[in-house]
Amino acid sequence: MSDRSPRNRAPQRRPDKVRQLAYKVIRQVTSEDGYANLVLNKALRDQRLGGRDAAFATELVQGTLRWQGTYDAILARSVSRPLAELDPELLDLLRLGAHQLLNMRVDSYAAVNEMVTLTRAEIGQSRSGLVNAVLRKVSQRSLDQWIAAVAPALDDDLFGHLAVAKAHPRWIVETFADALGTDGDELDELLDADNDPPRVTLVARPGLADLDELVEAGATRGRWSPYAAVLQGGGDPGRISAVSSGRAGVQDEGSQLVAVALASAPLEGSDAKWLDLCAGPGGKSALLAAIVSQRDGVLTAVEPQPHRAELVRSNLRAVPGDHQVLVGDGTKPTWPEGSFDRVLADVPCSGLGALRRRPEARWRRTPEDVEELRPLQERLLDSAITSVRPGGVVAYVTCTPHPREAGSVVDAVLARRSDAVLEDARPLLPGVPALGKGPDIQLWPHLHGTDAMYLALIRRT
Question: Active-site positions, per UniProt (predicted)?
């Protein structure tokens, strides 16, 4: 019998299960426009991975997606044909390998071998030689050395250099520079902060849970919000009883602060009817409902998509009171003008302020997306002002620092109305520094450790 008989072949190595899971998640994100956090969390639950395996898988997925543009620039120098000619599944394997070699403490020999084994299992033996050759070439330089080789020179093209070195599309780098009003060290700090995985931040919904309970469960108090706690070392927040019961939730501290600012704005007269005009998935709705419940008031939450309206209801399940969740279009109110005392208009936006937690978004969004959203943002703010009573307040909120989605929208709407004025929101967040020139507020990852939330406070006259 020939030595090449299948009976005499050594059995093929099985791929590492964590890397295989990470690869499958990345494929679902890049090929099906999945959301990395949702797809990854489901995969971890399905495979019952926890502890170090879950942490390793998370870094593989999030890091590969976050640094995708930088790795593509490096791989373009390491592959003999244009990346556009590579099959997408092969390109994702190479990106996953590059992340282990350049940004993780994985032995290069082990990383290459594991990726070759994974290639055989996922897309076939014929591709394994190319993966082996390309990743070995990538492993010959450090990340800094590769960036020096593939990025434009810093002095010749600052934004082009930062786009490669900091893994952001050039147009986003330019947008951030415009929003900051600088292209110096602060821009560098912001881009670095965008590449730091965010901490798991919790909110103790007032009247339902307190910070001491979350601290006893292993969290530490947040920096700015009176309701915030940070879960140290990551882990599953669902293991905390206050979270699993809905008395607390997972919510970025920036999202808490804009809700706190709206609830803290001075108001004369009635203060019992609040509106969340764009409520899904309901984190801010739950915090506002908990606050207004303590004032014997109620919240109405509006969400156009039925499945997201169900998420809002789920978030409100533990909050006492006759709060309503309506499925409807916030630009076409079904309630009389001036029905509410306070209104939150947290409008759909590009999400450029949340790139820490949604790393895939930076490669999906385009400048055209910003312009397409602009008319909807203006209509929603106009509807919010019409929905609030004279003397009442509106919080216009976006999770983006892009001027076209932030102050420019407010200016355009107020220019068409004579019954609303912009007020200084900064005094509503005492103790929080560097809120901007005012009267609106801009939070930043590098300054506040939050998403880059924008807030304008508008009072109807």
Answer: 399
